[in-house]
TrEMBL record:
Entry's transmembrane regions: none
CDD domains: crotonase-like
PANTHER family noted in UniProt: ENOYL-COA HYDRATASE, MITOCHONDRIAL (PTHR11941:SF54), ENOYL-COA HYDRATASE-RELATED (PTHR11941)
Source species, domain of life: Bacteria
Keywords linked to the UniProt accession: Lyase
Protein name: Enoyl-CoA hydratase
Organism listed in the record: Kitasatospora terrestris
Amino acid sequence: MTEYETILVDRKGRVGIITLNRPKALNALNTQLMTEVVAAAKDFDRDPEIGCLVITGSEKAFAAGADIKEMQDNRFPDVYLDDWLGPWDELGRLRKPVVAAVAGYALGGGCELAMLCDILLAADTAKFGQPEIKLGVIPGIGGSQRLTRAVGKAKAMELCLTGRMMDAEEAERAGLVSRIVPADQLLAEAMATAETVAAMSAPAAVMMKESVNRAFETTLAEGVRFERRLFHAAFATADQKEGMTAFAEKRPANFSNK
Ligand code: CAA
């Protein structure tokens, strides 16, 4: 397995796990960490033995945002020509489902990284926010867009314009997170969720992720048409036969990912 310095990478069965690991900087997302997360995630995405990914941080911080000290001296031509933070978009293009397991601070780029994932589990200690305004900038990895789609305009505006953090309860009420779990069970719950997803038919899981994401990119009519085509396409898989036969025979399905 490739050696990384700012992340830990592990695999358990069909689940690939990426742990952000810059504890002294509360997992601030510097260029090295971004490059490593994207590389590790793409490796897992290409690996047929992996069905789902988990991205997590530490007890204190999922990630406290983009690395402020790294970017403070940059000027427009530097960041523009370098497409600063652009590589994070590659995470949104992963085909396999990704579970974010968030404890502690998920601020700025940390909140945006969590929102780039597909299932967002929050520990009861999680705190979400887009405090970029306090630094004289705005979010740069999709925060103003994904937070608004997740929680609606009023709350997104308030959080982005004031930099206020919201706790896990508020984030769940607002629809940002799928579930809150006690902090000491966060990783176990994230793994159980990821293992459940990874045990499904891989083609069906990829189709499902693509289809749900379409809801954010297109009209309802186009989205329904897209879903219907993928639904029909699923009948070309051995897993459709296995899944439906297993149901009829009252036994668990044993998918071959074919
Ligand atoms: N970048 C660089 N270093 C950071 C950091 C960040 N985003 N967040 C924390 N750190 C560093 C601190 O500088 C500190 O380092 P030193 O010990 O060397 O001084 C260390 O991590 C621990 O942090 P604190 O001492 O501040 O810890 P705390 O518990 O008192 O406070 C906190 C925690 C409220 C999260 C506070 O660290 C904080 O406000 N961090 C910045 C949050 C922020 O503004 N994030 C947005 C960044 S911009 C962005 O993300 C743009 C985008 O859209 C991509």
